[in-house]
Amino acid sequence: MKIIIIGSVAAGTSVAAKARRNTEKEAIVVYDKGMDISYSVCGIPYFIGREVSSIDTLTPRNAAWFQKRYNVTIHTEHHVLKIHPEKQTIDVLNLRTGVIFEDSYDELVIATGAKPIIPDTFTAYPHAQNVFHVRNIQDAANIDQFIRQKKPRKALIVGAGFIGMEMAEQLKQIGIAVTVMQRGNQVMKHLDQDMAFRVQKELEKQNVQVKLNTTVEEVDYLDEDNSVLSILDSHGNKYDTDMIILATGVAPSTDILDGTSISIGQTGAISVDKTMRTNIPTISAVGDVAESYSLITGQPLYRPLGSTANKMGRISGDALTGGTLTYRGILGTGIVRIFDMTVAYTGLNEQEAREAGFEIEVLYNIKPDKADYLGGKEITIKAIADKKTARILGAQITGSSGVDKRIDVLATAITFKATAADLFHLDLAYAPPFSTTKDPILYTGMALDNAIHDNPLITPAELEKRRKSGEMLQIIDTRSKKQFEASAVKGAIHIPLAELRERIHCLDSTLPTVTYCNKGVTGNAAQNILKNNGFTTVYNLSGGNKNYQLYLEMQEK
């Protein structure tokens, strides 16, 4: 049997390596139109920002090494032009010689990855020397060379996803003033808007300009220098810039499918089964060109990440050589460092959960990542649970440390369909330098379980919605007088927790009541007192006044 793989980055090389581990019999041939194989796209921003000292470290395996190690024939600088499924052949252009030839296969794996989305405004300037994508090693080399030679002072980043955020951080750290322009109303579209606002505040704290609901409408172009000197945005504002990073996302690279009957899925990526095969039995697809699906809803999902690409490649290589591995879907877990903040998410966000038909409980849990007396720093966990089953559906976390540990625990728990109670009962490692006695994960489970069964929560958004609808709500601030006078929820009555029992007769037990403190714990204590004294409906404001004031700030912006 002869296996041909088109593409040699994370997914393609994983197919080849796993197939060869399973058998020495089959011929394995890899074609790639680039010069490099198995390189780290995710590491490119850190090379630009000088955290990675050498570009060579992003390409740990060259074609010669891989070919010898795995007995795989690799042809770089070879562009596969067309697939002929009925003949089981491909047309290949040798980019070095210009010669086109045909090759045949028994099994074909498409691992062509994704291509950058180019805003219409920039399509007329494909050769501008100061406009860059961040997709491959050559892009990295070009950006690095430009920065060293031209010494730009200002950069415009178009797009606010992972690459946009990472490039903003890295360019700022090497002394370049950065503006981030995003067509949507928030950065990082996979977060809920209130969590994305926390990211925006961190960017602004680091003197990165953030322009939301904004697109590039016009480009000023200097023919003599092949450089974009300035742009005009959709609001009529002009921005001078020395360099532009296009980080507007990617789309599956499916041009090679033209003329074939290979099925494209709902997301625009190639539709595959659990062994990564397409609708044509002898053709598979893996990595950023292939469609995934949600572990929670079972619905198609497209989240191009190196980790997923490697997993798909291994499964395909195994399936092609008689193995039993099958693909189980993903949660869409992601993490990024943005200056002093780490941002991570997994599973469904609030909007996605509601759109999927779940009735949900939403918790904002604000806790230190480790003991306060050892320098614990605050993290915010927004967790989503299904009210009907108590199953954890998703989480988003921001903080300066300890975020990676918590998101991975939550991703694991969600994968195995853990409920809120299951989270509380996890036996997590504890010592003061690493955690608190009640880890933020345990507290998340406890608070969500309480909310689903006994002590309901109310989010700032829901509170404001109900207030604006004219509903009569009784809101009690349980904090100190100093805290209350500094900032409070609109219309709140100030009754410190220590005075609540003796002043309870002043309150109406039949009115829907909301208790709150600064972050949530004391508000919960007040909620219990009122419930135990016969109050009909009592909510605790999730995340307390701190979360509420941040919500108001977001609304005002």
TrEMBL record:
Cofactor: FAD
Listed Gene3D superfamilies: FAD/NAD(P)-binding domain (3.50.50.60), Rhodanese-like domain (3.40.250.10)
The protein's name: FAD-dependent oxidoreductase
Secretion signal, residue range per the UniProt entry: none
Annotated ranges, domain Rhodanese: 469-556
A molecular function GO annotation: oxidoreductase activity
Organism: Listeria rustica
Oxidoreductase is among the record's keywords: yes
Keywords of the record: FAD, Flavoprotein, Oxidoreductase, Redox-active center
UniProt-listed InterPro entries: FAD-bd_OxRdtase, FAD/NAD-bd_sf, FAD/NAD-binding_dom, FAD/NAD-linked_Rdtase_dimer_sf, Pyr_nucl-diS_OxRdtase_dimer, Rhodanese-like_dom, Rhodanese-like_dom_sf
Superkingdom field: Bacteria
Family to which this protein belongs: Belongs to the class-III pyridine nucleotide-disulfide oxidoreductase family.
